[in-house]
Amino acid sequence: MGFGEIKTVSGATFYVSQMDGILGLAYDSISINGLKTFMTSTAETDKSFGFFFHNNPDQSYMTLPGMEETGITKIQTHNVIEKTYWNLNMTGLSGPNGSVDVTGYKAAIDTGTSVIVGPATIINPLIEGILVDSTCAGIDTLPNFTIRIDETDYVLTPNDYVV
Question: pTM for the complete prediction?
Fold first, then answer.
């Protein structure tokens, strides 16, 4: 398996995060300099993996191959529709201001990203009028948002989307 050394980085994430490296799990089609990704290079036949994220980073972990089944109540699966990032078929996006048209957009699942991002053309109408002050006062009165992947709804509460 190849190894790529990063000598310089750009972007706030790299400067404020405490990380020693990156294990890229995306597809070869977006790898730097054509390096084979871990999933392509590994001799493992079972290429499944799982993550457990906790507010305390010392309690977060990755299982490879396989997944931790203790404490899991339900697992959803979706087909990857574009093999760059793990791009899924996003079929809906809604909130207190109604639904927005997501035709032509995909949902990219990325464990290395800690925020939900999207183009202003679909995000701004969705969040218009929602205000959060610096103390997060009244967070429990904020609305939920729903992201639909295929036919499965994923509801985001204010505790999921307010940082």
Answer: 0.78
